[in-house]
Structures are given as C-alpha cells and as structure tokens.
Amino acid sequence: MSDDKIKDALRMMPYGFYAFTTKDGDDVNAMVVNWVSQMSYAPRLLAVGIQKSCYSRGLLAVGGGFGLNLFLQADSDAIMGITSGRAKKPEKMDAADYTAAPETGVPVLANSAAYIECKVTQIVDVGGDHDIIVGEAINADVMKEAAPPDVLSLTELGWSYAG
Which residues of 55-90 are buried (b: 16+ CB within 10 A; e: fewer)? Predict the structure, then answer.
C-alpha cells in the first residue's frame, strides 16, 4: 500500500491485455491496450482508451477502423513483440506475423485467440491524456475457443497500468 489510496484502489481493478491494430493505406501498427469495454448491445459498440500521442491514434483518425486481438494466457509470448511504441521500435511491424482482417484490412496477429474488427464511430476527448475510441463491431473470428479466465490480462503478467 502507498499513501495514494486512489492509485491503490485503481490497481486492484482487473484489466485485460489486448493488441489494438490500425491501418492507413500500407502503414499498419499494433500496440497493447487494456482499457477496453463493450458499451452497447445494439449496435455492438466497444470503447478503448488510447494515449493521444500514440502512433496508432494518427492511423486511426485517417483509416477509420481498428482491430482488437485477444490472446490466451498460454500465448502471452506472442504479444510481447508489440509492447514497445513505434517511437522506440519503429521497425516492430516488420517482424510482426499477421494477416489482414477481411473488412478493414487491419492486422490480425498470429497466435491470437480471437479478433474483433471495428469501424470507428466516435473519438471522444475526455480532457485527459487518453481519448476514448468508440467502434462498432463489424466482423470477428474465434480461432481458439476460451473462457474469460483463460484470456491474457495484466494480472498474469504482473503488470499494472492504472493510478
């Protein structure tokens, strides 16, 4: 425990660990995200929090779509190659193993358990260092069936992105 009880409480919240993929023309990117939630049943909307300054934010604004790749805990090594930002590792997509999603063309990373393709419906500036990207799910596929406890999260990695 620290002297910051808000930070302590936020770090108790469970967060998934996903690959967020974007595309603008031939320029593709993948980054990790964990602030993700379904926001509506009809239409099926997802909300994702991403840093305003990240490389994917620029691709998203032009490309208009994104993918959310889910991984199983057993496949955690498959997502580690994209944990660095493009500023630190500009060539990271050269080594990434992926195929193009059928509707949006965003990367579907190899060894992902499932992916969801989304069309951006809103980019919400909440006044902080992250924006909320709202996307309508337009396509998905499940390559490895699993239950939520099997899906990779920050807890299994011993990481935290809160506070």
Answer: bbbebbeebbbbbbbbbbbebeebbebbbebbeeee
Rounded to 5 degrees, what are φ and ψ at 128?
-115, -160
Q: Which two tokens stand for residue 14?
A: 């469970």
Contacts of 29 (CB under 8 A, 6+ apart): 21, 22, 23, 55, 56, 59, 86, 93, 107
Please say whether the beta carbons of 117 and 137 come within 8 A.
yes
Provide the residue ranges of all domains of the chain, joining segments of one domain with +: 17-157
Choice between 162 and 160, residue whose per-residue pLDDT is larger: 160
What is the CATH code of the structural domain delimited by 17-157? 2.30.110.10
- Encoded tokens for 17: 């660990």
Range 62-85 average pLDDT: 95
Percent of the chain, pLDDT > 90? 85
Q: Tell me: the pLDDT tens digits for 88-132?
A: 999 999 989 999 999 999 999 999 999 999 999 999 999 999 999
What are the helix (H) ranges across 83-122?
92-95
